[in-house]
Every structure is written in structure tokens, then in C-alpha cells.
Here is the input.
Amino acid sequence: MTTQIRTEPIAPTVEGEFQTGQVLTIVGGHFVHDTYPSFLAPLLPLLIDKLSLSLAQAGALQLFIQTPALLNPFIGYMADILSVRYFVILAPAITATTMSLLGIVPNYLALAILLFVAGASTAAFHAPAPAMVGRISGSRLGKGMSFFMAGGELGRAIGPLLAVWVVSWWSLDNFYGIMLLGWAASLILYWRLHHIPARSDQRQDLRTVWPVARRLFVPMLAFLFPREFMLTGLAVYLPTFMDSQGASLWLAGAALSLWELAGVAGVLFSGTFSDRVGRSVILLVATSSASILMLLFLYVQGWLFVPILLALGFTSLSSTPVMLAMAQEHLPNNRAMANGIFISLSFLIRPVSAFAIGLMGDHWGLQAAFLAAALISLLAIPAIFFLPKIERKEI
Here is the structure.
């Protein structure tokens, strides 16, 4: 007997084998690539001292590296029309080169240019790369997105530690040698992936795609906006919050690393398991659990904060691969453009939520701001019920 859960007419997920070797190659490239942009934060105090930067100038550096993310929908659209696999292949080398040259920049303008090029390279990687993973994941799209996101999360967790270690051994002036890892990654990606297409043979034009994209991304934006308050609060202000609670500098930094490393496990689990139980179920459980854990984290005492922080990292970061899988399921012939829209939405929300939490922290204190972020994140739950569902068949 065949039953159908039907919404709008959307192409089903492509069936096929999960190509583990090829997926892990792209995941490895993602890991190496995302290690490099994370160098900026630990190098920032050294750059401030070397170039005599004001705090305002230092804060503006994030804009230079993040602004190119606005190009993601355009890059994704082009990736669905043209074969831009070489964007994915070359991006680790380009990003590695620009971020590794930060130690020898002579002035602020050169620093800004390098960061903008690194941001553009990052955008060129992140739009088509998940689409490539999706095409070689077969019917296990959630699993593919979990693997992909885990690689990036691990790179962002390890990158700051690697940067500090390299600077301590080689000095800032000789930091450029670390670019060799990025070039090695690009060579491996070329060897393994140069024959894998990065575009769809059945792509649809924008007039055809727009109704489906609107039904998907409007409720997705309603989900992302409140959820981002908690994520941005933890990612940006967690060490500061720990410091305000009397923690040592080491413990404050370790708390952020614990949260991020737990997120690696969370993204590995969530997308993979969503292939079995459904995307919306995972989003609902993860969002509600993360909000409750955030409230517990604010009031827990002593060593109990460690397991709660780990559980918070596991749940709060686990939604992203599920959302990426949903975007590709609903726009299977325009996967790269779907990725690009999702990434751009996240980018546009992040600085708004960071500023809002900082403003609340200035007026009421960070504990009250974190409490507000946890409560605001609960507003993401109703949006889950408005996300369109893919057609499924059970035999």
C-alpha cells in the first residue's frame, strides 16, 4: 500500500548511494578551509599592536571578511548554471594565502583588502560545496549535510588554537608558512573532485523557482531570526559572560571551545537522524531543548555547568545541517542557490542579533541579556510548523 504526505509539487530527493569517500574529501576541504578565517580573532590583539589600530578599526575588520557573504545567492545561482567546481577546489588555497599573509601587512588598507578577498573566497566555497555534497549523498542528504557542517565546526574550533601555536613558534612575521596546508588541501580536492559536477543538468529559471523559494525561506527566516539570538550570544559573548561570573580567562576561553566541540557532535547527529525521523521533528526537539538548557546554564552552580554547556552546544548548533538539507530538498535543481540564500539570511541576522544582545547587556547585564536570548529563541518554534514538507512515500 502506498500513502502520500503531499504539500506543494516539489521534486523528490535523488536516490542513490552515499559516496563516503568523496563526501569525506569535501568535508576535509571544509575543515581546512574554515580553519583559516578563524585565525582573525586570536591574531587581532597582535594586529592592533602592530598597526596601532583603534578598537573601532579592529571591530570593522569583521565587516570586510563577512560582507562578501551577501554574494552567496548570486554565486549559488551561477554555480547552478555554470560548473564552478574549481571555486570549491581553489578556495582553500586562496583563503589560506590571504589569511596567512595577515602577519606581514604594512597598513590597514592592505589588511582590509586581504580580509575582503578571504571573505569572497569563503563565499565562493560555501555556496557550491554543500550542493556537491548533496549530489553525492544520494538519499542520505541529511547525513551529507551533517558531515559537511561538522567539518566546518571542527575547523572553526581548532583554528584559533592552531594560530596561537604557530605564532608562538614562528612569530607573526613568519606566520605566512601556514598557507601550505591550504594549498595541500586544494591539490587533494583537485585530484579527487575535478570530475564531479557542481551544477544541475535540470536547473530551473528564477520564475519557476521563486514560488517554492518563497514558501520555504519566509518561514525559514522566521525560524532563523529568533534562534540566532541565542547562537550569536553564545558565540560572541560567552567568554565575556564567564568572565563577568568570576571565571578565569582560561576557563572563559575553554567554555567557548567546549560549546563548539559539542556542536560538532550535534551537527553529526542531527542531519543524519533527520533522514529517519523527519526534519521538523529534529528542529522542534533541538530548538526547545536548547532554550531550556540555556536557562539552566544561567543559574547552575559549580561543575554542573560543564555537562549543561556540552548539551547546550550539542542542541543549539544542530539545526544548521537540517536547514541546509531542507533547502536542497525543496530546490533540488538549484541547490547552490538555495545554499547561498540560506547563508546570506544567516549573515544578515547575525550582526543585528549581536548588536541587540550587546545593547541589552549594556543596560541590564549579560545574564539578563542571555535570559532574554533564551526566551526569544522559543519564538522560533511556531515557525517550524509553517515550513513546507517534502513529498514522501512509504511502501
